[in-house]
Structure formats: C-alpha cells, structure tokens
UniProtKB/TrEMBL annotation, chain A:
Alphabetically ordered keywords of this record: Cell inner membrane, Cell membrane, Membrane, NAD, NADP, Translocase, Transmembrane, Transmembrane helix
Catalytic activity: NAD(+) + NADPH + H(+)(in) = NADH + NADP(+) + H(+)(out)
Membrane topology listed for this record: Multi-pass membrane protein
Primary location recorded for the protein, binned into one broad class: membrane
Domain NAD(P) transhydrogenase alpha subunit C-terminal residues, every copy: 8-91
EC numbers on record: 7.1.1.1
Name the UniProt record assigns to this protein: proton-translocating NAD(P)(+) transhydrogenase
Superkingdom field: Bacteria
Intracellular or extracellular location(s): Cell inner membrane
Annotated function: The transhydrogenation between NADH and NADP is coupled to respiration and ATP hydrolysis and functions as a proton pump across the membrane.
Bilayer-spanning residue ranges: 6-23, 35-55, 61-82
Family matches, as InterPro entries: NADP_transhyd_a_C
From TrEMBL, chain B:
Stretches assigned to the NADP transhydrogenase beta-like domain: 11-456
Name of the molecule in the record: NAD(P) transhydrogenase subunit beta
Keywords in alphabetical order: Cell inner membrane, Cell membrane, Membrane, NAD, NADP, Translocase, Transmembrane, Transmembrane helix
Places the protein is found: Cell inner membrane
Species name: Nocardioides abyssi
Length: 102, 461
C-alpha cells in the first residue's frame, strides 16, 4: 500500500467513527457537543507549533506565532467553556425514577 | 507531505491521543458522560501539543511558549466571562480563530514544500488555506450578526449570486495556480478570496438560521485541520479534524431537520427571495392583554401548566424567577413542565444550558415530541420570550419563512398566556397569528418584572 492510501484509509474510517459516535445524541446536548467538537479542532495548535518551531525568517516566525495564539484561544477557550456548560448540567440531583416530569 | 520521521513512541502517543478524541466525542454525546468526555479530550490535546517539544529540536521555543500563554489566557478568560446567552457568538469566534490558524499553518507549510511535492499534497495545502479562510471570515460575520454589531436580517444585494459565483471560480483558478507553481504568493491571493467567499456565504443567512451556519463552519474547520494534518504528516491532526468534520456535518443535518429546512435552503434561500425575510414590523391589530393578577388566577387554579421558555427569557435574565414561579405552582398542586423546542434559544440545545444554569431540574425539561401530545389536555401554556417556535404559521401558511418547521402545538391548549415585551415579531421576523386568538392572553412588560409580579400575585392567592 502506498503511503497516501494509508492516510486515505485512516480518513475514511475516521469519517465513519465521527458520524457513528454522535448518531444518537439528544438535542439537549447539541450546544455542548458543538462547543466540544470546536475545542477538539483547536488541536491545529500542534501544527502551529511544528511550523513555528521550524520558521527560518522573521516573517514566517511572526505568522507562525499569530497562528499559535489563535489556535490556543480556540483550544483552551473551547474546552473551558464546554466544561462550564456541562458543569451546570451535572449539578442536578442524579437519582429520580423516570416519569412524566410531574 | 513531510516524511514521518517521528520515533515509534511518539507515533504511539499520537495514536493514544486520537483514541482519546474519539472517546471524548462519544462521551459528549451522553448526558452522564459529557463532562468526563470533554476532560479526556482536553487532556489528550495538552499531551499531543507537548510531544513535539520533547523529541524535536524546535527553534524559538520561548516565543512559542509565550504565544501559547497569551492565547491560553485570552481563551480561558473569555470562556469564563461569557454570559450563557452569548454562548453561540463565542463558539463562532473560537471556531473562526481555529480556521484562521489552520489557514496560516498551511501557508507556512507551503513555503517548505519543494517542487517535487506530489500535486495531491499541494492540493491539500491549498484546500486548507482556502477553507480555513472561508471559515474564519464566515465565523466573524456570524459573530457580528449574533452580537448584533450588524443587522441579524439577511443581507442581499443585486448581483450577489454573480459575485459569489465569480469568487468561487477565482478560488478554483487560484488553487490550480498554487498546485501548478507551488507559490506562496498565489496562496496568499487564495486566502484573500477565501475570506471574501466566507463573508458572502454568511451575509444572506437570516438570524434564525445562523446557529446552523455555526455548526457548518465548525465542520469546515474540522476538515481544514484534517487536511492540514495530511500536509504535515501528523496523524492526530488528521483523525481529530476528520472526526470533527464528519460529526459536525452530521450534526448540521440533524439541526436542519429539527428546523424542517434543508441546509441548501438555509444558505441560499435569501438569494431566491424567500427565506427568513419577514415583515419585521409591529402590528396594531387588537389583542387581549391582562394584568399580572388576572394571569395569576389563571395559573393558580390550573391543574396542568406547560411553560415554553424562549431566548427573551434568557435576555431578561429571568430564569431564576421563572423557576420560583414554577415551584410555587407545583406546590399548589399543579403539574408543571417546561416544553423545550430543539432550537429554542439561539442555538440548538441552548435553552437547556440556560435553564440548567438556573438550576431547573433536568427532568422537568420535556422535549417537543414528548410534550406535543399532552398540549390538548393542558389548561394553561405560559410562553415566556418565545415566538417563532410556537407560531402556527409553520403548519398553516405555506408562504411563511418558517413553514414546515416542527413547532410546539401551543395553539391546541385550552388557554395561552404570552409574556411579551412588545408586539414586535420574533427573530425570524414574522407575525404570530396565535397572539390574536381569543384564547390567548398577553401580559406586556419586561420578562423578569412580569414574572416577579406574577410570582407575588400567585403567592397572594
């Protein structure tokens, strides 16, 4: 198998996993899920670190540092705000027989 | 693609991080596991970012750490300070900066690519630059609409479809030039055109549909990150980006279905003339309004009450007062639930977050499909700051912009009480016939004040 095909395989399998793991999500959790997924793509920070660490001119260094700041805002902010939201959901009393909500 | 020279242990750590992201998404999809899932994702992200510092001989480490510290502080403070009502804007903004970062990373990586790089790899880089720029500009416009820095109504002008088409064509041509010449100059042009496409993509979208666009842009940023991962030869970026891209696309379709719209009609509906362009003006037709005491009597002696909370409730910060009122009614023997429309608030699931903040028990939040069969037997429905989600025009008027959207069948209840600030129409900008129904009573005023007066009046019964 050529290397590109390996990457394609990982990509296609990830698509299916991505759809599968959230297929049964209740609409109650749409906002935290969106925000959590948003935080996960903040992992572009890893890419920003890699290119900034190999920058060979002032211009590329500056652009790389800007990308690093932006990506960190995405990643850190995303996870913190998702946790803040979910914290509120978990404050409720956990035990209660399933009923009609009366 | 840069050859993967990372040692085996690094590869294994990356694999573990990728698995953690899958577990994080899976956790986020269930109410019990959501918080844990989010923490697993955060931990994996921190580990993945730390790895290159350990095995690579990176330059400028101090500056990079400063940049991370700055971004971390900005992100964390913003996330701590934001009001829960402003959550959609913040998610849009975080998404935008992520897309922007991906585009910049791809631009820099393009400078490292040689002429011998396979065309497919350069193409992936061009994709990252273009789509990252679209996501950045689109998110910024979305933020401006939600923050009401600009009108939340669809912005259309003559020639917009032509301009949009021309820009898309320019994107393809520039991407082709980037691939042919592997030149950073063309890629910068591509990024600029991408920004313009992002702006024009979101401008015609009406206020009520903006949440769907956030989800779509989120998915786009995910795909951008995935392509960036391929270019950099980094498996974590590829898996994490693809996961977000795929689940985000699926989530977008779920939300669009909950609103009874197709994604295409949300994005391009305004260009065809229909969509969420409404009257947007207050009507002077007669309505029946009442004082808090009358409404208190209506509520105080009802056996079955359903509350329909809307964004207006959250804007007035009246969730706590509402919860108190519901508790008092329940203590008087009434059966009270909250009916939650899937798109109540400014973002799907937003209302659940807002009510959870006011410590409303999760069990009292009943989803639309479960509450609708009960509404014909409901004595009083109390609508607080909601409008479009109870507008029967969605069932009855094919010309209405919200036609086809599933709604809460409030019009089938015995009595309806609207708490409204004024007769102005809702976010979608259309009039609600239910307001003029003989069974409807209106209580005008700020939601928080009205609820406080109602609470006092019910207690005095």
């Amino acid at each position: 198998m050529s290397e590109a095909v390996v990457w394609l395989t990982v990509f296609v399998l990830s698509v299916f996993v991505g759809v599968e793991v959230i297929s049964k999500v209740s609409s109650t959790l749409h906002t935290p899920l969106m925000s959590g997924a948003n935080a996960i793509h903040g992992i572009i920070l890893l890419g920003a670190v890699l290119v900034t660490g190999t920058a060979d001119s002032t211009l590329t260094l500056v652009v790389g540092l800007v990308a690093t700041v932006l990506a960190t805002v995405n990643m850190v902010g995303g996870f913190v705000v998702t946790d803040r939201m979910l914290q509120m959901f978990s404050r409720k009393p956990a035990r209660r027989p399933r009923g009609d909500g009366s | 693609m840069t050859p993967t020279l990372a040692p085996t242990w690094v590869q294994l750590v990356y694999l573990a991080c990728a698995v953690c992201f899958i577990l994080a998404l899976k956790g986020l999809a269930g109410p019990r596991t959501a918080r844990g899932g989010n923490l697993v994702g955060a931990a994996a992200a921190v580990v993945a970012v730390a790895v290159p510092f350990t095995y690579l001989d990176l330059d400028h480490v101090a500056l990079i750490l400063v940049a991370i510290a700055v971004g971390g502080v900005v992100g964390a403070v913003g996330a701590q300070r934001v009001q829960m009502t402003q959550m959609p804007q913040l998610v849009a903004l975080f998404n935008g900066v992520g897309g922007g970062a991906a585009a910049l990373v791809a631009l820099l990586e393009l400078g490292h690519l040689g002429d011998a790089t396979p065309a497919f790899d350069v193409g992936a880089t061009a994709f990252t630059v273009a789509v990252g720029a679209v996501s950045f500009a689109g998110s910024v416009v979305t933020f401006a609409k939600l923050q009401e820095l600009m009108t939340s109504r669809p912005v259309v002008f003559p020639g917009l479809p032509v301009l949009f088409g021309a820009l898309l064509l320019a994107t393809l041509v520039l991407a082709g030039l980037v691939v042919a010449e592997v030149a950073v100059g063309w890629a910068v042009g591509l990024a600029l055109v991408g920004l313009a496409v992002g702006v024009l993509l979101v401008l015609p979208v009406g206020g009520a549909d903006v949440p769907i666009v956030i989800s779509l842009l989120n998915a786009l940023t995910g795909l951008t990150v995935a392509a960036g991962g391929y270019v950099l030869g980094n498996i974590v970026l590829l898996v994490a980006g693809t996961l977000v891209g795929a689940s985000g696309t699926f989530l977008t379709l779920l939300m669009a279905r909950a609103m009874g719209r197709s994604v295409a009609s949300i994005l391009f509906g305004a260009l065809r003339g229909g969509s969420t362009l409404g009257a947007g003006e207050a009507s002077d037709r007669p309505v029946r309004s009442a004082g808090p005491e009358d409404v208190a009597i209506l509520l105080g002696y009802a056996e079955r009450v359903v509350v329909v909370p809307g964004y207006g409730l959250a804007v007035a910060q009246a969730q706590h007062t509402l919860r108190e009122l519901v508790e008092v009614l329940a203590a008087r023997g009434a059966r009270v639930d909250y009916a939650i429309h899937p798109v109540a608030g400014r973002m799907p699931g937003h209302m659940n977050v807002l009510l959870a903040e006011a410590q409303v028990p999760y069990e009292q939040l009943v989803e639309m499909d479960d509450i609708n069969p009960e509404l014909p037997h409901t004595d009083v429905v109390l609508v607080v700051g909601a409008n479009d989600v109870v507008n029967p025009a969605a069932r009855t008027t094919p010309s209405a912009p919200i036609y086809g959207m599933p709604i809460l069948d409030v019009d089938q209840a015995r009595q309806v009480v609207f708490l409204k600030r004024s007769m102005r129409p809702g976010f979608a900008g259309i009039e609600n016939e239910l307001l003029f129904d003989p069974r409807t009573t209106l209580l005008f005023g700020d939601a928080k004040e009205s609820l406080a007066k109602l609470l006092a009046a019910v207690k005095a019964l």
